[in-house]
């Protein structure tokens, strides 16, 4: 009889630690997601706004939500100039940025 109680005790103990491990894993997952979302919110170099990634003519550019400044990463200007048409990429960019 004591053997069945020992087995039951071990099973309950294993279940307890399994549940605690799952809780710890979930807590770490939430912390990692919070850090990633915090890291992805890059501040604007010009003002205190936040840069959001926008796709313009197939190129990912960063645009400030306050001053509406546009920031290009390495190689993005070259990719935009390759796509330049008769109206020019800068004029199209500024035309699409104006409120209307």
List keywords for this structure.
single chain, alpha+beta, about 100 residues, about 55% helix
Description:
The chain has helices at residues 2-40, 76-82, 89-97; strands spanning 51-56, 59-64, 70-71. It has 3 helices and 3 strands; from the N terminus they run H-E-E-E-H-H. Helices cover 55% and strands 14% of the residues. The radius of gyration is 27 Å and the shape is rod-shaped. A 3-stranded antiparallel β-sheet has the order 1-2-3. The model has no long low-confidence stretch (mean pLDDT 80). A hairpin with a 5-residue loop joins strand 2 (59-64) and strand 3. The chain has 100 residues and is α+β, with helices and mostly antiparallel strands. The protein folds into 2 domains: 1-40; 51-97, no CATH class.
Mean pLDDT, to the nearest integer, reads: 80
Structural class: alpha+beta
Strand order, main sheet: write it out. Answer: 1-2-3
Largest sheet: 3 strands, antiparallel
Write the layout of secondary structure elements.
Layout: H1 2-40, E1 51-56, E2 59-64, E3 70-71, H2 76-82, H3 89-97
Antiparallel strand pairs: 1-2, 2-3
Report a brief summary of the structure:
It contains three helices and three strands, in the order H-E-E-E-H-H. The chain is an alpha+beta fold. The chain folds into two domains: 1-40; 51-97, no CATH class.
